[in-house]
């Protein structure tokens, strides 16, 4: 794991300081004056001057870096630019070069190839980035799955078709925006078994239920399917959960839509089965952990 900040510290800053030290020396500043302007030691300036510091050729060759270094060196030498202003200008350039597809972003992708999968629009420092959002959903899902794995007796609630705990992004539109367990969660000799790490786009059934509920007004962002049992429904109602029945033999989105319209506050959906259809309960909630906690409370 390598952070983009490490690219900045290990490659960008040494390169820019080396270029800037050289430009300042050409502007007539002494080694001592260069050290004072840059806030580094004279020995560091000497290393830059003698090429003893490793620099990055791609950064040094970037036209924006070269232009900024030249402008700052001239301004610092003339006294028109203060060291603080120079720092700010360099920080601004760093943020620009970190944006999706730009120089530092490319260097970061070279170091962490997985980042390239998220496209050129990705920006590491963007608090609303799709990657940050999806990773938070996956993190929540992993915590929820741990709750279920450690919940004594959860395997008894797993239906024959298997369970799946799913969670979606805030603006989820389809199953690709919903993360779940590949292959579902199964009962293997009385033990809850999660066969693989959660991924997006791997749960069609439970994801469809969650998305349908959201499209008809539910604010749920996670869901799980468990065995149907009247006693379980009773326990959920006693806990304050509103339940609503739907017909899974019909079009699921339409059936769930009708159920939510009848019970807008419903956070538990269920169907009692039919020819070739196993009866199931679907517990919905704001996140994977809370859904898992609700299920654990039934044990």
TrEMBL record:
Q: Which domain of life is it from?
A: Archaea
**Which residue stretches, if any, does this entry annotate as coiled coil?**
none
Q: Which PANTHER family match?
A: HTH CRO_C1-TYPE DOMAIN-CONTAINING PROTEIN, TRANSCRIPTIONAL REGULATOR PROTEIN-LIKE PROTEIN
What this protein is called in its record is: HTH cro/C1-type domain-containing protein
- List, in alphabetical order, the Gene Ontology terms for molecular function in this entry: DNA binding
Please name the InterPro entries in this protein's record. Aldolase_II/adducin_N_sf, Cro/C1-type_HTH, Lambda_DNA-bd_dom_sf, ThiN
HTH cro/C1-type domain sequence ranges: 26-48
Question: Which Gene3D superfamilies does this one have?
Answer: Class II aldolase/adducin N-terminal domain, lambda repressor-like DNA-binding domains
* Organism in which the protein naturally occurs: Halopiger aswanensis
**SUPFAM superfamilies registered for this protein in UniProt:** AraD/HMP-PK domain-like, lambda repressor-like DNA-binding domains
Query: Pfam family of this protein, just one?
Result: ThiN
């Amino acid at each position: 794991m390598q952070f983009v900040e490490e690219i900045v510290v290990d490659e960008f800053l040494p390169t820019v300081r080396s270029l800037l030290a050289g430009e300042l020396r050409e502007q007539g500043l002494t080694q001592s004056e260069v050290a004072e302007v840059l806030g580094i030691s004279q020995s560091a300036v000497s290393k830059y001057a003698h090429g003893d510091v490793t620099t990055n050729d791609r950064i040094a060759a970037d036209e924006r870096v070269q232009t900024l270094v030249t402008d700052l060196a001239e301004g610092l030498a003339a006294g028109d630019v203060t060291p603080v202003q120079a720092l700010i200008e360099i920080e601004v350039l760093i943020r620009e070069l970190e944006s999706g597809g730009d120089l530092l972003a490319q260097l970061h992708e070279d170091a962490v190839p997985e980042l390239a999968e998220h496209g050129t629009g990705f920006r590491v420092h963007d608090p609303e980035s799709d990657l940050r959002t999806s990773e938070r959903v996956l993190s929540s899902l992993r915590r929820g799955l741990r709750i279920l794995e450690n919940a004594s007796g959860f395997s008894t609630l797993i239906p024959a078709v298997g369970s799946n705990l799913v969670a979606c992004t805030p603006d989820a539109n389809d199953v690709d925006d919903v993360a779940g367990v590949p292959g579902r969660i199964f009962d293997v000799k009385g033990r809850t078994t999660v066969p693989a790490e959660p991924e997006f786009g791997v749960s069609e059934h439970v994801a469809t239920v969650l998305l349908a509920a959201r499209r008809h007004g539910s604010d749920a962002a996670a869901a799980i399917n468990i065995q149907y049992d009247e006693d379980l429904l009773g326990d959920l109602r006693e806990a304050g959960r509103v339940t609503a029945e739907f017909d899974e033999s019909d079009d699921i989105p339409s059936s769930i839509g009708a159920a939510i319209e009848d019970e807008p506050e419903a956070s538990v959906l269920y169907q009692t089965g039919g020819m070739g259809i196993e009866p199931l309960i679907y517990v919905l909630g704001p996140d994977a952990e809370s859904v898992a906690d609700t299920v654990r409370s039934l044990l």
